[in-house]
Each structure stands twice: as structure tokens, then as C-alpha cells.
Amino acid sequence: MSDFDVVIHLRNCDNGGPAAEAGFALAKRLNAHVLGLHVVALSTAAFVSPEAVAVQVNETSHLLEQARAREPWWRELLERHGLAGEFQVVQGDAVDALCHASRWSDLIVAERPCANPDAPVGWGIASRTVFGSSAPVVVVPEGARIDKVGEHMLVAWNASREAMLAIRGALPLLARAAQVTVLEGESNPGLLGFENLPMIDLRAWFERRGITAEFRPFKPVKDHGPAVLEAAHAVDANLIVIGAWGQSRITELVLGGVTRHLFQHSDLPMLVAH
Asked: What pTM does this model have?
């Protein structure tokens, strides 16, 4: 029996790709039940009229059959990794499907294409899933380093809502990590200042949960995104835990930001929450 559910988004059913590799590695750490989910896209243009829907569904029916015929391949992967799980193929919008599955899952694993991405940063499948997901999302950049993922976790901490959501979602993995490094950045005060807000001592909070972490001050002069990635490489971390879009998504798209930089440039998987 498993207490955890991990959903891996399969962009194609020919091979699992980096998302499947990372997903299985993390699921093995959690002894999780693994759902391999493939979504056959149904174009929004199909909903112009009932007739268009019928035509689109008919045209993609063979894709559904081909994808569902790949279940033995998935079962073989599960057996190879010693995990229980299932395989589902649905038709529609990938973001809707992943966000729906997140309602009963503990972790969503999705690949972020780097070559010919599906959309600009902030509007792709992985980005939009982070916004709508009820569970944290592990974003796996195409070509990311997958080996030893989750052994050394780097936490970007600034006492923000998003950072805390990511940490809470990462707790099962943090508890199983061999090493945890926390980048302790500057907090953003509320409207009335920190003296009017309850404070959290993250060191003590981790200790109460049996998590040992090394805290490092993090105060880059500018460009926090590159600095986070540089720090992760400096300590040889293999999974970054970070809150996504502390600013509005539009602000980050126009002016840039940590999330945007990491989604564009990270070669490490990132566990993110918004």
C-alpha cells in the first residue's frame, strides 16, 4: 500500500522522456502509486459547433487507440521500478486533465520543452498547470539532469506564501533527502510591516518534522534567478524547491523574474507551487 500518488504527464507514449525518469525516481523515494497520463489534444476550434466536435473526435479516435495500446509498455516500466500504478489516456486539454488529477494527487510531474516550446514561459502546459494545480508540480526541463533527483534538495526561502506552499508540498521528499540546503533570502513585508505579523522560524519548523537542513544567507545584488541556479550548481543540488510567480505572471512576462528565468534556463528539475 502507498500513502502517496504521483501523476506523470506523458507528452508521448513512445518513450517516457525526462518527466517519466524524474517521476519514477521521486515515486520510488515515496513508494508512491504512479499514474501515467497521456492526453490526446482536442483543439478548441472543435467546439465552434456540435458538428465540428464530432469531426474532431472522429479524426483523433485512432490516436486514442494507438495511445491506449501502449499500456503494456507502461506496466513494464512500473514493474521494472517495483512500483504500483495505472495508465490512462484521455482526450481534451492537457492542463485541464492534469489540474483535475491534481485534486487527489500529491505530486504532478510535467516536462518543460526547451526546443520549440509549446508556448512562451508563463503560458505553456507546465506553466499553466502550476497555476491551476491543487498539488505541487515538478517541472522537468527537457535535457535536465535526472540522476539522483531528490537526494540533495535546494530550497529557496523568503517567507512568502508561494515559498511555503512549495515547502509544504515537498515535505515528504525533504524528509527523505540525504541533504537539504536552504537559501535564506530577504522577506517581503506585509502592508503594515513584519512587526504586525506572526513569524516563522523555518529552522525550528524543519526540526520539529525531523528535517536537517543547512541554511545559507542569500542576498544577491540583482538577478535572483541566475543566482538561485548558480547556488544550486555550487552545492551540487539536484532538485530546486521554489515558490512560483511571487509577482503576477504578467509582471514576470514583461519585466522578467525568478520563475521566468528558471523555467527558461534551469537544467535541474524544480518542485514549484503557486
From this structure: 0.88
Query: 6 by DSSP, 3-state: which?
Result: strand
Q: CA 266, 268, 269, 271 torsion: positive or negative?
A: negative
CATH code at 152-273: 3.40.50.620
**pLDDT, tens digit only, all 274 positions of the chain:** 779 999 999 998 888 899 999 999 999 999 999 999 999 987 655 555 565 566 666 778 889 999 999 999 999 999 999 999 999 999 999 999 999 999 999 999 999 876 554 445 556 888 899 989 999 999 999 888 898 999 999 999 999 899 999 999 999 999 999 999 999 998 766 555 666 778 899 999 999 999 999 999 999 877 888 999 999 999 999 999 999 875 544 444 433 478 888 988 899 999 999 8
Q: Residue 209: is it exposed, middle or buried by C-beta count within 10 angstroms (0-12/13-18/19+)? A: exposed
> Looking at beta carbons, which pairs linking 81-84 to residues 24 or more positions away fall under 8 Å?
81/24, 81/27, 81/28, 82/28, 83/24, 83/27, 83/28, 83/31, 83/32, 83/33, 83/34, 84/2, 84/33, 84/34
Domain boundaries defined on the chain: 5-141, 152-273
Q: Is beta strand 179-184 parallel, antiparallel or unpaired with respect to 107-112?
A: unpaired
* Cα–Cα distance for residue pair 79/198, rounded to 1 Å: 48
Which CATH fold topology does 5-141 show? Rossmann fold (3.40.50)
Rounded Cα gap, residues 168 and 171, in angstroms:
5
C-alpha cell at 181: 540546503
